[in-house]
Amino acid sequence: MDVKNKVIPRYNGTLRSHKLDVPACIYECSGISIFGRRIKSLVFSTDVAIIKNINTDAVIAVYPFTPQPTIARAVISVADAPVFVGVGGGLTSGDRSVRLAVDAENQGAFGIVVNSPIAPETIEKIKKVVDIPVVATIVSDKQDIDERISAGSDILNVSAADRTPAVVEYIRRKYPDIPIIATGGNTEESILKTIRAGANSITYTPPTNGELFSETMKEYRKRFN
Fold it and tell me: Is the whole model's pTM more than 0.85, yes or no?
Protein backbone atom coordinates (compact mmCIF):
# COMPACT_ATOMS: atom_id res chain seq x y z
CA MET A 1 0.00 0.00 0.00
CA ASP A 2 1.31 3.44 -0.94
CA VAL A 3 1.19 5.30 2.39
CA LYS A 4 1.82 8.63 0.64
CA ASN A 5 -1.51 8.31 -1.16
CA LYS A 6 -3.49 6.61 1.58
CA VAL A 7 -7.19 7.36 1.80
CA ILE A 8 -8.44 8.54 5.18
CA PRO A 9 -12.04 7.45 5.85
CA ARG A 10 -14.08 10.28 7.35
CA TYR A 11 -17.40 10.57 9.14
CA ASN A 12 -18.87 14.01 9.78
CA GLY A 13 -22.53 13.27 10.37
CA THR A 14 -25.29 15.58 9.22
CA LEU A 15 -25.90 18.02 12.04
CA ARG A 16 -22.28 18.14 13.18
CA SER A 17 -20.93 18.76 9.68
CA HIS A 18 -21.51 22.46 10.37
CA LYS A 19 -18.36 23.08 12.39
CA LEU A 20 -15.16 25.08 12.48
CA ASP A 21 -11.87 23.83 11.05
CA VAL A 22 -8.50 25.20 12.06
CA PRO A 23 -6.43 26.30 9.02
CA ALA A 24 -4.99 23.20 7.36
CA CYS A 25 -1.57 24.83 6.96
CA ILE A 26 -1.09 24.59 10.75
CA TYR A 27 -0.43 20.88 10.31
CA GLU A 28 2.85 21.62 8.57
CA CYS A 29 4.42 22.28 11.98
CA SER A 30 6.14 19.51 13.94
CA GLY A 31 3.79 19.56 16.92
CA ILE A 32 4.67 18.96 20.57
CA SER A 33 4.21 15.52 22.13
CA ILE A 34 2.67 15.80 25.60
CA PHE A 35 1.73 12.65 27.48
CA GLY A 36 1.79 10.78 24.18
CA ARG A 37 -0.48 13.25 22.34
CA ARG A 38 0.93 15.20 19.42
CA ILE A 39 -0.39 18.75 19.57
CA LYS A 40 -0.04 20.98 16.51
CA SER A 41 -3.08 23.27 16.78
CA LEU A 42 -4.51 25.05 19.79
CA VAL A 43 -7.68 27.14 19.74
CA PHE A 44 -7.58 30.32 21.81
CA SER A 45 -11.06 30.51 23.29
CA THR A 46 -13.21 30.09 26.40
CA ASP A 47 -16.45 30.00 24.39
CA VAL A 48 -17.81 26.52 25.08
CA ALA A 49 -19.87 26.48 21.87
CA ILE A 50 -16.77 27.22 19.77
CA ILE A 51 -14.65 24.73 21.73
CA LYS A 52 -17.22 21.96 21.27
CA ASN A 53 -17.43 22.51 17.51
CA ILE A 54 -13.86 22.94 16.29
CA ASN A 55 -11.37 20.29 15.18
CA THR A 56 -8.44 21.52 17.25
CA ASP A 57 -5.79 19.36 18.93
CA ALA A 58 -6.01 21.38 22.16
CA VAL A 59 -7.57 24.41 23.82
CA ILE A 60 -5.73 27.31 25.44
CA ALA A 61 -8.12 28.85 27.97
CA VAL A 62 -6.66 32.23 28.90
CA TYR A 63 -8.77 35.35 29.43
CA PRO A 64 -8.36 38.96 30.65
CA PHE A 65 -9.99 38.45 34.06
CA THR A 66 -8.67 36.91 37.25
CA PRO A 67 -8.56 33.12 36.71
CA GLN A 68 -11.54 31.31 38.22
CA PRO A 69 -11.77 27.54 38.81
CA THR A 70 -15.40 27.46 37.70
CA ILE A 71 -14.41 28.73 34.24
CA ALA A 72 -11.65 26.12 33.94
CA ARG A 73 -14.09 23.42 35.05
CA ALA A 74 -16.66 24.49 32.46
CA VAL A 75 -14.15 24.50 29.60
CA ILE A 76 -12.59 21.16 30.57
CA SER A 77 -16.01 19.51 30.93
CA VAL A 78 -17.07 20.56 27.42
CA ALA A 79 -13.83 20.17 25.44
CA ASP A 80 -13.15 17.02 23.44
CA ALA A 81 -9.47 18.08 23.28
CA PRO A 82 -6.88 18.65 26.05
CA VAL A 83 -7.14 22.03 27.79
CA PHE A 84 -4.30 24.34 28.88
CA VAL A 85 -5.58 26.54 31.69
CA GLY A 86 -4.41 30.06 32.49
CA VAL A 87 -3.53 30.62 36.14
CA GLY A 88 -2.53 34.28 36.04
CA GLY A 89 0.70 36.17 36.26
CA GLY A 90 -0.61 39.69 35.81
CA LEU A 91 -3.58 40.70 37.98
CA THR A 92 -3.36 37.34 39.73
CA SER A 93 0.02 36.08 40.85
CA GLY A 94 2.07 34.59 43.69
CA ASP A 95 0.60 31.89 45.90
CA ARG A 96 -2.87 32.35 44.38
CA SER A 97 -1.50 31.28 40.99
CA VAL A 98 0.09 28.26 42.65
CA ARG A 99 -3.22 27.23 44.21
CA LEU A 100 -5.02 27.76 40.90
CA ALA A 101 -2.44 25.55 39.16
CA VAL A 102 -3.04 22.71 41.62
CA ASP A 103 -6.81 23.07 41.23
CA ALA A 104 -6.53 23.08 37.42
CA GLU A 105 -4.49 19.87 37.43
CA ASN A 106 -7.01 18.22 39.76
CA GLN A 107 -9.81 19.15 37.36
CA GLY A 108 -8.00 17.52 34.45
CA ALA A 109 -6.07 20.36 32.81
CA PHE A 110 -3.40 19.18 30.36
CA GLY A 111 -1.09 22.09 31.12
CA ILE A 112 -0.76 25.40 32.97
CA VAL A 113 -0.34 28.76 31.19
CA VAL A 114 1.28 31.66 33.06
CA ASN A 115 1.14 35.22 31.77
CA SER A 116 4.20 37.30 30.90
CA PRO A 117 4.47 39.41 34.12
CA ILE A 118 4.64 36.38 36.41
CA ALA A 119 7.70 36.16 38.65
CA PRO A 120 10.13 33.28 37.97
CA GLU A 121 9.84 32.38 41.67
CA THR A 122 6.15 31.63 41.16
CA ILE A 123 6.96 29.35 38.23
CA GLU A 124 9.36 27.47 40.51
CA LYS A 125 6.63 27.04 43.12
CA ILE A 126 4.14 25.79 40.53
CA LYS A 127 6.62 23.26 39.18
CA LYS A 128 7.04 21.80 42.67
CA VAL A 129 3.34 21.01 43.05
CA VAL A 130 2.06 19.97 39.60
CA ASP A 131 3.01 17.21 37.19
CA ILE A 132 1.71 18.85 34.02
CA PRO A 133 3.69 21.21 31.76
CA VAL A 134 4.03 24.87 32.64
CA VAL A 135 3.68 27.12 29.58
CA ALA A 136 5.27 30.56 29.98
CA THR A 137 3.96 33.39 27.82
CA ILE A 138 6.59 35.47 26.03
CA VAL A 139 5.63 38.84 24.54
CA SER A 140 9.07 40.21 23.58
CA ASP A 141 12.60 39.05 22.89
CA LYS A 142 13.65 41.58 25.55
CA GLN A 143 11.82 39.61 28.22
CA ASP A 144 13.73 37.58 30.84
CA ILE A 145 13.42 34.33 28.87
CA ASP A 146 16.52 32.80 30.49
CA GLU A 147 15.02 33.15 33.97
CA ARG A 148 11.72 31.62 32.94
CA ILE A 149 13.38 28.57 31.46
CA SER A 150 15.69 28.23 34.48
CA ALA A 151 12.65 28.46 36.77
CA GLY A 152 11.21 25.35 35.11
CA SER A 153 9.02 26.49 32.22
CA ASP A 154 8.50 23.47 29.96
CA ILE A 155 7.07 25.28 26.94
CA LEU A 156 7.19 28.89 25.74
CA ASN A 157 4.05 30.52 24.39
CA VAL A 158 5.01 33.39 22.09
CA SER A 159 2.37 36.09 21.69
CA ALA A 160 4.08 39.17 20.28
CA ALA A 161 1.48 40.38 17.74
CA ASP A 162 3.09 41.12 14.35
CA ARG A 163 6.56 40.52 15.83
CA THR A 164 5.75 36.92 16.76
CA PRO A 165 7.78 35.31 13.92
CA ALA A 166 10.82 37.46 14.80
CA VAL A 167 10.58 36.57 18.49
CA VAL A 168 10.13 32.88 17.66
CA GLU A 169 13.21 33.00 15.43
CA TYR A 170 15.22 34.69 18.19
CA ILE A 171 14.22 32.06 20.76
CA ARG A 172 14.84 29.17 18.37
CA ARG A 173 18.39 30.36 17.66
CA LYS A 174 19.19 30.74 21.35
CA TYR A 175 17.29 27.69 22.61
CA PRO A 176 17.16 25.14 19.79
CA ASP A 177 15.39 22.47 21.84
CA ILE A 178 12.75 24.42 23.79
CA PRO A 179 9.16 23.64 22.67
CA ILE A 180 7.45 26.74 21.26
CA ILE A 181 3.76 27.49 20.87
CA ALA A 182 3.05 30.70 18.94
CA THR A 183 0.13 32.74 17.71
CA GLY A 184 -0.12 32.34 13.97
CA GLY A 185 -2.18 35.32 12.90
CA ASN A 186 -5.20 35.36 10.59
CA THR A 187 -3.70 34.32 7.27
CA GLU A 188 -2.04 31.23 5.85
CA GLU A 189 0.99 33.38 5.02
CA SER A 190 1.44 34.55 8.62
CA ILE A 191 0.91 31.04 10.02
CA LEU A 192 3.51 29.52 7.70
CA LYS A 193 5.93 32.36 8.46
CA THR A 194 5.62 31.59 12.17
CA ILE A 195 6.12 27.87 11.60
CA ARG A 196 9.21 28.49 9.45
CA ALA A 197 10.61 30.75 12.17
CA GLY A 198 10.65 27.72 14.47
CA ALA A 199 7.25 27.33 16.16
CA ASN A 200 6.31 23.74 17.00
CA SER A 201 2.61 24.42 17.54
CA ILE A 202 0.25 27.21 16.47
CA THR A 203 -2.50 28.97 18.41
CA TYR A 204 -5.51 29.89 16.29
CA THR A 205 -8.03 32.57 17.27
CA PRO A 206 -11.39 31.60 15.75
CA PRO A 207 -14.22 33.91 14.71
CA THR A 208 -16.50 34.85 17.60
CA ASN A 209 -19.85 33.22 18.17
CA GLY A 210 -21.47 36.53 17.19
CA GLU A 211 -19.54 36.76 13.91
CA LEU A 212 -20.46 33.21 12.95
CA PHE A 213 -24.11 33.62 13.85
CA SER A 214 -24.26 36.87 11.88
CA GLU A 215 -23.43 34.95 8.70
CA THR A 216 -26.07 32.34 9.53
CA MET A 217 -28.69 35.03 10.06
CA LYS A 218 -27.84 36.59 6.67
CA GLU A 219 -28.61 33.24 5.02
CA TYR A 220 -31.91 32.97 6.91
CA ARG A 221 -32.95 36.46 5.83
CA LYS A 222 -32.29 35.69 2.16
CA ARG A 223 -35.19 33.24 2.26
CA PHE A 224 -37.61 36.12 2.70
CA ASN A 225 -36.13 38.48 0.09
Answer: yes
